[in-house]
Design a protein that fits this description.
With about 110 residues, the chain is an all-alpha fold. It is built from six helices and no strands. The longest helix is centred in the middle third of the chain and has 21 residues.
Length: about 110
């Protein structure tokens, strides 16, 4: 899904709109305003966006429940990583520790 800036840029390119033309200034302004209306009324499907947000929140809450034994600050950090990169970092750390038991000796404060 395109952002509004990307959508307008694509539409300007498709219509070969010269935004710097002083002769067509009013017409260009009207056309660009129409692009914005098209973006919000036709291009964006708000029901899909709402559905995606609900599904994402459910996914994050399920993950938060699975890591509930960690401190809340750590939970927030792990959920943020999962939301941003779709990676369950707690599992990666556990797997790393299983492979390298001397990891604890590397850490110095």
């Amino acid at each position: 899904m395109l952002s509004i800036e990307e959508y307008i840029a694509r539409r300007k390119k498709e219509d070969q709109l010269n935004e710097f033309s002083l002769a067509n200034r009013m017409e260009n302004m009207k056309t660009c305003v129409n692009y914005v209306f098209e973006y919000f009324n036709q291009y964006l499907d708000t029901t899909k966006l709402d559905e995606q947000t609900v599904l994402n929140n459910e996914r994050l809450e399920k993950y938060r429940n699975s890591i509930s034994y960690y401190d809340e600050e750590i939970q927030d950090w792990l959920v943020h990583i999962y939301d941003e990169y779709n990676k369950k970092l707690d599992r990666a750390i556990i797997n790393f520790l299983k492979k390298d038991e001397l990891f604890y000796l590397y850490y110095r404060k």
